Amino acid sequence: MKNPLYSNDIAFELDQKRQDESRQGEVLVIDAPEDFISNGKSYYIESYGCQMNFNDSEIVASVLASKGYKNIQTHESADVILLNTCSIRDKAEQTIRARLAQLNKIKKTNPGTVVGILGCMAERLKEQLLVQEHLVDIVAGPDAYRSLPDLIEEATGGQKAVNVLLSREETYGDINPVRLASNGVSAFISIMRGCDNMCAFCVVPFTRGRERSRDYRSILQEAQDLYNRGFKEVTLLGQNVDSYRFSYDPTLLGKKLIEKKDTDEVVNFANLLELVAQVAPDLRVRFSTSHPKDMLDDVLHVIAKYDNVCNYIHLPVQSGSSSCLERMNRTYNREWYIDRIDAIKRIIPDCGLSTDIITGFCGETEEEHRETISLMEYAQYDMCYMFAYSERPGTLAAKRFKDDVPEEVKKRRLQEVVDLHRKHSLESNLRDIGKRQTILIEGVSKKSSEQVYGRNDANKVVIIDKGNHKKGDYVKVIVTDCTSGTLIGEMIKD
Ligand code: 5AD
Ligand code: SF4
Q: N or C: which end of the chain has fewer CB within 10 A?
């Protein structure tokens, strides 16, 4: 495991891109846009948490570049220091608090520096960090990034600057994100913001507000632009992509979409996926995250129909027990989830499948935990992100239930699911040996400069000898060996 953000969380490194639980404090490298005119001021930004947050930092970069702020990679000399933060578990917030304390020391040597906190923690704690704890000068929630230049000005003038208003409309659809720390091969496109589900454990609906879908035309434009610039893969991002719905006429959004002919008026996720797939046959399309209650067969048929829509679904189950799922307010039960897995395996036989699991949620009994284990046996996940439950203030669970599973029981259960998953991922990789696959090369292997790595359709990392391959090449390989985390392959000629 690399970069563990939380001591009690385990995020497997099988998926380097969906490291949402293991990315912390990454410094983003930002190239100034061609039409950049400097205002003489610089900023430094660090990002924490999920992919959505990293994508948001790209939007922030774009907003600040348009006002002449230059991005730099060292905080010591920056006029403005920004942390884009995550609240998903307590440990995440603690890490960020420690970092804020460190950064504040800079103000002693350079009192003019403005420190700002963005993202979920800004939204959750609002003025507390500013007024009570005096840790920051700017607090900007996820829907307030357009106002950042004004907030910076206010803070530079010595005032405390806050904007934590959540919007029902903001999608930043018209802002072309500056691509940060990009490998030039794959990019993320946010297709919606917020979440209308109220999973009992989750702070996201409170920090990111109501769900809203971005105009599909701006999404297609962004995908096309990326393709024109040489990108070969886009991942469509949302908290719950299957409930994507866009209409020119908002009154239509409440209506149930039954037939495809309605798509002139309403674009749902299956329609959007199909439209993005049609941008270019050699532009791979991925998406994350699906909610089991909303993931219906129409999306699966689109995946099956288009070669460039990758055969990989991240379908968080959280628990394998219907009673626990009910307390979690996930609005599906074990049988429904199993039906969705069966549908995936029927419609897309070689589909990669991954999930999120929480151990030790309020009231979780040993029997309920066993049901999670048996569901894992059934699903045979290729990848799995596993967490011990961490109570978040203000959530439904915090209001309704006691966080009553002892810490050592949470951890023991977590270890059991981790061990089982390791076994499954090794078995899944062993099954790939001898198979022919196409991989998209993403870069040089960290372990050897003589090797490159790429990802297969099912999102598994495959390592091959470097040869003449370069980033962005599609290479046909045969899998020859594996570990529980990686496949090893050799190039083949068709
Ligand atoms: N405690 C532990 N894990 C959580 N997640 C969300 N909220 C919590 C929490 N309070 C996990 C869920 C979700 C993933 C992004 O993080 O599994 O799918
Ligand atoms: Fe949180 Fe549930 Fe929304 Fe995911 S779907 S962001 S877990 S409330």
A: C
